[in-house]
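General statements about sequence and structure are easier to judge against a single worked case. For one protein, we set the task of working out the structure tokens from the amino acid sequence alone. This step matters because it turns folding into a mapping between discrete strings. The amino acid sequence and the backbone structure tokens for this protein are reproduced below.
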Amino acid sequence: MLKKTIKFLLHLVIVVLLTVGTQIGGVIYLVSIASIKRSSSKYWLKRLGLFTLLYVLATFLFVPILAPIFGREKIKKSEYIAARTFMTDVLNRNYVRPELNTSLRRISIALHKKHKGIKLVYLDANFPFLNKFPLLPHLSHNDGKKIDISLIYRDKDGKVTNQKPSVTGYGVYEDPRSGEYNQIKKCLERGNWQYDFTKYITFGTIDTNLTFSERATKDLILEILKQGATGKLFIEPHLKTRLQLNNQKIRFHGCQAVRHDDHIHFQLK
């Protein structure tokens, strides 16, 4: 009885983690364990193989076909738009509403005109199905209207580059300088321990040769703000001041979120 309970709990944990991480993985896992009986030889290996096959087929073939039913579509990559990591697509965190895709295309083209060769690099967007389904650890990426965009950096020679300091694009911060308002310190002092949580999800070596490009990042933000469909944009207050940005669409996201001096968040109206 104890052994069966432990196995059930193990399956439950796997289903929850796959559902939280990919939205569709939990269901596919249940299908794979139901399809391969425990009496079968090497059943765990067969289940893993079936799960991998079904997941790949679902993610890259069936989900893109079904997502428009829920008002969403995959981010349309181009020579001007790229994911920071392929895992964003593998985990189904690359879906947006069609009007956000349109805005991304316009922003990326305008950015390329100002900075040749520089791409709009996206991080997390939304899952393909169901409004209000959480895309953790984000608080609001649940309706197809939100997306995180990477900041832009310069290489060791001072040239603007598409390279990013971390594997995920998150967790390497452009900290407040001396004399700049330090919202991060305020939030942490209030007990919002999660505020700098993203420093734990860099997932690899930090490229210390890269430095923040104020000019290129400001140009990117200005193009985002020009879009009529843009409702809000989140960055840390010290970056708003440093980049001399003054627009009512730029908001403070609140201490209940995570800090936004490693990426830009913007969303539709």
About this structure: The first strand starts at residue 73 and ends at 74. The chain has eight helices and eleven strands. Residues 2-68 form one domain. The chain has two domains: 2-68, 73-268.
